[in-house]
Amino acid sequence: MKIALQEGLLPGDSLDEKLDFAESLEIEGLEVSGWSKPYERVKELEKALKGRRITFASVCGQSTFDFLDPDPAKRRASIEESKRNLDVCAHFGAVGQIVVPIFGGPRLPDLSPYFDVIELEKQIFVEITKELAAYAADRKTLVLLEPLNRYEQHLLRRQDDGVEIIKRAGDPPGVKLLSDFFHMHIEETSTPDAFRRAGKYVGHVHMADNTRQQPGTGDIDWRAGLGALKEVGFTGYLAYECGIAGERKAALKQSVEFIRRIIKGL
């Protein structure tokens, strides 16, 4: 397993300074935020990463999350935005783009008794997943579906919910799960068991403690969770997506060393 840090977590006034710090910790991957015009940053990122050990690992999200909006034009705009971010992932050989289908409650109407709103959302999102997975697979990258906790999203809350969508989409090769320790700590009765059930579907991992601060500052059992990931054969990135408690450089250094000691002891 490899460690990645999000660009926004890294101290420094420039991308070069941020990457210098990341490499001082021997970080393997960089995760960047998704955006509406991702092609605009390609040259900047190419220049900053050239000759470095750290690689472009993943894109987290995008500027719109209208995949399940009642307006077909908004749905299409979010799908096309995702494709642009997947192009950038493919360009850099990244794992993929993290996609959240919706934030908050449902926007679609309840069509009971024909379809309740959740089933309608699932049917639409299955078709979107098919389209994006095919696009990603053609470019040798992944769409990474992220379940969130109940306070942020209603549809995909547990790992099983994400696996259900993937299976209903036909289990295509271009899609896997983004599994987030923080959200799992809220929604799963056992994070290690959830990893074991999800198994091969785990494509990328986010790390934050139960406080949503850096790993090691709360009460998540990191040894148990990372041990379960090792059991299922996960060798990908563990990307920090969290707040930072304490002075940033010292706190990140301490947390990364903490996680590395656990991985080494598994």
What does the model show?
The protein has one domain (2-265): Divalent-metal-dependent TIM barrel enzymes (TIM Barrel). 43% of the residues lie in helices and 15% in strands. It has 9 helices and 8 strands. It has helices spanning 15-24, 42-49, 72-92, 117-138, 159-168, 181-187, 191-198, 222-231, 248-265; strands spanning 2-6, 29-33, 55-60, 96-99, 142-145, 175-180, 202-207, 237-240. An 8-stranded parallel barrel has the order 1-2-3-4-5-6-7-8, surrounded by 4 helices. The chain is globular, with a radius of gyration of 18 Å. The N and C termini lie close together (11 Å).
SSE order, as H and E? Answer: EHEHEHEHEHEHHEHEH
Structural class computed from helices and strand pairing: alpha/beta
pLDDT < 50 stretches: none
- The CATH superfamily bears the name Divalent-metal-dependent TIM barrel enzymes
How far is the N terminus from the C terminus? 11 Å
Shape: globular
Beta-strand segment tally: 8
The number of helical elements comes to 9
